[in-house]
Amino acid sequence: MLVIIKEDYDAVSAEAARLLAERLRNKPNLVLGLATGSTPLGLYRELIRCHREQGLDFSKVTTFNLDEYVGLPPDHEQSYHRFMWDNFLSHVNLDPRYVHIPNGMVRDIAAHCKWYEERIRAAGGIDLQVLGIGANGHIAFNEPGSSLGSRTRVKTLTRTTRDDNARFFATFDEVPRYAITMGIGTIMEARELLLLATGESKAQAIHDAVEGPLMARVPASMIQMHGLAHVIVDRAAASRLTGEYVSSLEEGTLVRRPLGPGER
Ligand code: F6R
Q1: Which atom of ligand 1 is the closest one to the Cα of 181?
Q2: Rounded to whole angstroms, what are the CA distances from 123 to 100, 110, 132?
Q3: From the CB of 39, is ligand 1 less than 6 Å away?
Q4: Tens-digit pLDDT profile for residues 230-260
Q5: pTM higher than 0.90, yes or no?
Q6: Is ligand 1 within 6 A of the CB of residue 66?
Q7: Is the CB of residue 199 less than 8 Å from the CB of residue 236?
Q8: Which residues of 49-63 are buried (b: 16+ CB within 10 A; e: fewer)?
Q9: How far is the CA of 259 from the centre of ligand 1 (A)?
Q10: Which pairing describes strands 178-181 and 192-197: parallel, antiparallel, or unpaired?
Q11: Annotated active-site positions, please?
Q12: Across all residues in the chain, what is the average pLDDT?
């Protein structure tokens, strides 16, 4: 696990975009796992900019979103479908046929979840999964106590998560109670993880996920078991970390070339 601490939200977004763009340039048919929420918005903005200004090409990319509320139609203002199309998907040259977001309106949720897992497998598995983290340590909608081996399924949202999301709905009663979410086992099968967090409200969750014991009470702590995970946080989200961490991808991963004559 490589933990990278950046100054602020914009720097976190830029670093995450740099990593993702590099992976995409190396593999044009990348299978990308995407997250919603306020955290990755800056990353999406930056990717849109790279697409417009540098021609970053998404035409062969396949995407799988982590989750969707049960009971919200795709065109509902607060659905994750709408969020993704408004904030990212429609601003780059993604082929809509390659976009996958769980459908919260299906009648047979169990069959839909099974189908979703099969689509991920048929695409060859997820190459890079973008993740946010809940203040309670959730990843996707795997709330505290979720099975660490779980697959895509329906989950009941905790009161804390519903409270966190209440700001987007007119009344608390309108906040959905259930969501379809990739499981922790599903997420762990992605070849690479990119977890982003910013702000003081995430400091405890980041501490627990990165430096705490591995436990179902903190679903995000499972990233400690992943072979290739990057955690990019700002100073505020890193404020409860006690270990020594790097400040850039290069610092953490650069294989330095041997010094030439006269260099030191
Ligand atoms: C969203 C998701 C959630 C969020 C988390 C943080 O697809 O999977 O786990 O990543 O709730 O949300 P924000 O970024 O809004 O703080």
Answers
A1: 8
A2: 11, 20, 23
A3: yes
A4: 999 999 999 999 999 999 998 887 655 666 7
A5: yes
A6: yes
A7: yes
A8: ebbeeeebebeebbb
A9: 44
A10: unpaired
A11: 67, 136, 138, 143
A12: 95
- Which residue has its alpha carbon closest to ligand 1 atom 8? 140
Among 6-20, 102-116, 137-151, 158-172, where is mean pLDDT lowest? 158-172
Report DSSP letters for 102-157, one per residue. --TT-S-HHHHHHHHHHHHHHTT--SEEEE---TTS-BTTB-TT--TT--SEEEEP
Average pLDDT over residues 170-194: 97
pLDDT score, position 262: 73
Taking the CA of residue 35 as reference, the ligand 1 atom at the shortest distance is: 7
Residue linked to tokens 């006690």: 242
User: What are the structure tokens assigned to 7, written together?
Assistant: 């100054």
pLDDT confidence bin for 208, thresholds 50/70/90 = very high
Ligand 1 closest atom vs CA 131: 10
Query: Could you identify the residue written with the tokens 């918005």?
Result: 41
Closest C-alpha among 168, 156, 181 to residue 65? 181
Say what the pLDDT of residue 164 is.
Answer: 87
Task: Find the 206 Cα to ligand 1 centroid distance in Å.
Answer: 13
CB 209 less than 6 A from any atom of ligand 1: no
Question: Residue 191 pLDDT > 70, yes or no?
Answer: yes
**Cα 219 to Cα 146: distance, rounded to the nearest angstrom:** 7
